[in-house]
Each structure stands twice: as C-alpha cells, then as structure tokens.
Amino acid sequence: MINVPKAKAGARQQPITKHLAEFIKGYLEALPEGSPWLFPSVAAKSGHTTDIRKAFRRVISAAGLDPDVVVRHTLRHTAITHLVQAGVDLPTVKRISGHKTLIMVERYAHQNGEHIQAAMDKLQDRYTVGA
Q1: Cβ–Cβ under 8 Å, residues 12 and 4
Q2: Is 6 or 63 the better-scoring residue by pLDDT?
Q3: How far apart are CA 97 and CA 108, in angstroms?
Q4: What is the model's pLDDT at position 110?
Q5: Residue 123 in contact with residue 117, Cβ under 8 Å?
Q6: d(Cα 36, Cα 129) in Å, to the nearest integer?
Q7: For all residues of the chain together, what is the average pLDDT?
Q8: Which domain holds residue 108?
Q9: Is residue 42 part of a domain?
Q10: Predicted pLDDT of residue 62
Q11: Which of the two residues, 69 and 128, has the higher pLDDT score?
C-alpha cells in the first residue's frame, strides 16, 4: 500500500502490485542512506521532485507516443479498463482506483465487443451445462 495524503478525494491508501512493491523496495535501498524523499532533487528548492510532467512527457516521447495524447491520466484510465476487462468486480475496482462512487468507475470501464461477448458466453455456459 502507498499512503496518498493529499489525493483529490482526500487521503487514502493506494493498493499496488507485488511487482511494484519489489521495485520500490529496491529503489529505496539504492537511495542515499537517510534520504527522506522518494524522488530527491538537488535542483528543486524543496529538495525533492514535486512535478513529474516533464519527465513523463520525455518518457512518452521516447516510447514513440504523442505526449499530447498519452497523458498521466491515460495510465489510470487504461489500468481501470484492464481491471474490468479481467473480470474484477466494480466495487473492488472502485477501491483500487480510489473513486468515491461506482458511477465514476463506470466512466472508465470501457467494455469492448469481445469483453461483452465473453460475458454472454459465460452466461450461456451456466445455462447449458449438462443440457
């Protein structure tokens, strides 16, 4: 879990994957001992990075994508869509995404034709088992 003290909807705990937890653990071990910041920056007045927009645009461009189209929010939108398409129930997606309502989750949860057909196939399988 990552503590997000100043999220848009208030303070919350953000669940993360085991892979990300291991990555952060290794990253923290590589920081100078006693560093209070996850992203220290000698150039910043605060001593740490407070804005990742430039770095994000640089990474997106390096990946051959358009940084005016692929924004930080695109990652959130994609992750929520993937959770729903993987069959994760909406209340759980709501908890992971930090949304206050299921209506907000539904705005992000784009089901494509294949996803909907797979759901209908599951329904059909329940009705035709042993028939």
Answers
A1: yes
A2: 63
A3: 10
A4: 67
A5: no
A6: 58
A7: 87
A8: 70-131
A9: no
A10: 98
A11: 69
Q: Which residues contact 84 (CB under 8 A, 6 or more apart)?
A: 90, 93, 105, 108, 109, 110, 111, 115
What pLDDT digit, counting tens, does each position of 26-84 carry?
999 999 888 888 888 888 899 898 888 999 999 999 999 999 999 998 998 889 888 98
* Model confidence pTM above 0.85: no
Phi–psi pair at 11, nearest 5 degrees: -60, 145
In a domain, 56, yes or no: no
Flag whether 131 is in a domain: yes
Q: Determine the Cα–Cα distance for residues 124 and 47; give it in Å rounded to an integer.
A: 58
Domain presence at residue 74:
yes
Q: Which amino acid is at 19?
A: H
